[in-house]
């Protein structure tokens, strides 16, 4: 097996978002390579609690002298919990180089001595985070692999109000990062880049480095897939939405689009999640007269989310700006057929065999097209049982963490054998079903 130094500054099984992705990728790679993980000191306790041995399996780097002040500043500037992600990412990118400085101080000698075949930076996921290790590894003759990288999906012009509500002021000038000398050096010296989305692949294409497409999100099939074989027999269509209750996620769009079915008693809608729009959603449910057909569950644990997903038939997830869409994969692992917006990550996860994609556009158009799609499903114009099976198979074949480890292992082999063709794992199929609304 190749000897790989995995850099995962953010990697924590007890957290969500990037740290959870970093943990899942880094630890899954231990089954396909001789891996030593380098992470930040804040993750040390979680690593130890999962049975990893410090010094043998991982090293925790203490970069808090720089990281802590930037973290506190980011929390002060973001404009509220869960908001201002571009600001958070920018400040983290300023603090991150010190972490890599300490990594090289600790492991530079071993890298130059050839003790590692590949150095792989898994996190940060953001394309805006520079790396001094790329240049140093190239000089040492050791391939430096970046990714999966994802982020920076532009706000669609129809949703500028949502951009303002999310405090995304810095997103207007985000592209300035690409002119920084440290960023140019990072990509010039990387042996290859794993792109986590089509948008990121296009954004980085001008750097002319080999690009492999592997979405960063994956699934713990033991958590989400094990009980999904029970089958679903309902007297009415079971709809579900999972996500933060904020404007751009579109829970209100989902309710408005499905209200006729809900009023008629032909469907039930479970809304899972919490956020600043909870009160507004409660008012909307009352205004639409669908209290009898909607359950607002609020925040739920991972275990409860998995259990609720297993009872659902269709996920309605009209988020208009989603980088990855991990919740869509969770639904598919449970055999839930997703309806998503064909913009960003979710539209790349769904194929015609297992889901539906709605073109992004004005809110009224999206609402009408989701309404048409759900009505067609309720009228049994599509075989949900067949689509459900296809969704679970797609997860097992491509998106389980075990599958992801195998894909990245193939990238290591490609790097070390100097093969000409970049690996292609068949993630991108034909565009998913798009049902046009009737005028």
Task: Produce a short descriptive summary.
The protein is α/β, with parallel strands linked by helices and 439 residues long. The chain has 17 helices and 13 strands. The protein has a seven-stranded parallel sheet with strand order 3-2-1-4-5-6-7, sandwiched between helices. A six-stranded parallel sheet has the order 10-9-8-11-12-13, sandwiched between helices.
List keywords for this structure.
439 residues; alpha/beta; Rossmann fold; 2 domains; six-stranded parallel sheet; 43% helix
Topology record:
Layout: E1 3-8, H1 18-28, E2 34-40, H2 44-49, E3 58-61, H3 64-77, H4 85-112, E4 118-123, H5 133-140, E5 144-149, H6 160-165, H7 181-189, E6 192-195, H8 198-204, E7 211-213, H9 221-224, E8 237-242, H10 251-263, E9 267-272, H11 278-288, E10 294-298, H12 302-309, E11 314-317, H13 326-333, E12 337-341, H14 345-349, E13 356-358, H15 363-378, H16 384-399, H17 401-417
Q: What do these coordinates show?
A:
With 439 residues, the protein is of the alpha/beta class. The strands form two sheets. A seven-stranded parallel β-sheet has the order 3-2-1-4-5-6-7, sandwiched between helices. The N and C termini lie far apart (59 Å). The mean pLDDT is 89. It contains 17 helices and 13 strands. 43% of the residues lie in helices and 15% in strands. The chain has two domains: 3-218, Rossmann fold; 221-394, 3-Layer(aba) Sandwich (Rossmann fold). Strand 9, helix 11 (278-288) and strand 10 (294-298) form a beta-alpha-beta unit.
